[in-house]
Amino acid sequence: MPQFFASIVERLKRSKYVNLSSHVLSLLRHDVALWPEHLDDEGLRGLGRVLVLTPHPDDEVFGMGGTMVRLRDLGAPLSITWFTNAEEPTRKAESRAVLDRLVPEMTDDEAFPLPGEHVLVGESTGVIRERIAAFQPDTICLPSVFDTHTDHVRLVLALGEVIRRDRWAGRVLQYEVWSTLVPNRLVDITAAMPEKRELMNLYRSQLRQDMLNYVDRIEALNRYRGLGGCDDWAEAFTLTTAAEFAGMVRRTKRLPPHAAL
């Protein structure tokens, strides 16, 4: 029996080493160790048509709410799609309130295509294909490949699969929610921070959890990101080509058996 547990520990050590090595390789390959570039108004317009993929209602605002406010104010084409909770009345209503502030012209079918509480890779790949065909994005945004939340991992895997199969050739902008990333882009959201705070507070059902004061924690993250040369507040991203993103997914993520459903 001691030998059995020793073999398990050894496998865990090897797995952790491979995972860490893959993360380091991804960082080195994408110049994220350099000082992050600031996306000013011209840089944000350069993102073109922006499709934001978000696992749950609130992830998009926590991760890049200030950037979406700036994109909206610049008149950039913007679209948001949630991958869960389309049939949960409270969370859908909260999401709709956010959508009415950012992209009021979007229909519910575009924004809320899936009813379940969890992201499933198979369903998500179909939705991503549909949204790419309908919206024709130049840039797709979603949680970072380093995010450890299971549903976020599944969405990352789904986009990686779509890129691999369909050879979509745009850019991918990864934002941070549950796990930080090493950024190669920063967006100054100082002027947009009051509205981001309002948008976060629209998710009232998610702010009742005293142990997880999301607003305070996201504000602390954005305040910290402002150290990178912004006035006060910033959001951090990793921007890559679609092919580079697919490579990052291949090196850092594995598809759990239950995620393929």
Characterize the structure shown.
Helix 7 links the parallel strand 4 and strand 5. The protein has helices at residues 2-29, 41-45, 59-73, 89-102, 108-111, 121-135, 150-166, 193-201, 214-225, 242-252, and strands at residues 37-38, 50-54, 78-82, 139-143, 171-175, 185-188, 234-241. It contains ten helices and seven strands. With 261 residues, the protein is an alpha/beta fold.
Strand content: 5-15%
Q: Strand-and-helix sequence, N→C?
A: HEHEHEHHHEHEEHHEH
Low-confidence stretches: none
What gap, in angstroms, lies between the N and C termini? 35 Å
Quick overview of this protein structure:
The protein is of the alpha/beta class. The protein has helices at 2-29, 41-45, 59-73, 89-102, 108-111, 121-135, 150-166, 193-201, 214-225, 242-252; strands at residues 37-38, 50-54, 78-82, 139-143, 171-175, 185-188, 234-241.
Q: What is the fold's blueprint, element by element?
A:
Layout: H1 2-29, E1 37-38, H2 41-45, E2 50-54, H3 59-73, E3 78-82, H4 89-102, H5 108-111, H6 121-135, E4 139-143, H7 150-166, E5 171-175, E6 185-188, H8 193-201, H9 214-225, E7 234-241, H10 242-252
Parallel strand pairs: 1-6, 2-3, 2-4, 4-5
Antiparallel strand pairs: 5-7, 6-7
Labels describing this entry:
13% strand; 261 residues; seven-stranded mixed beta sheet; alpha/beta
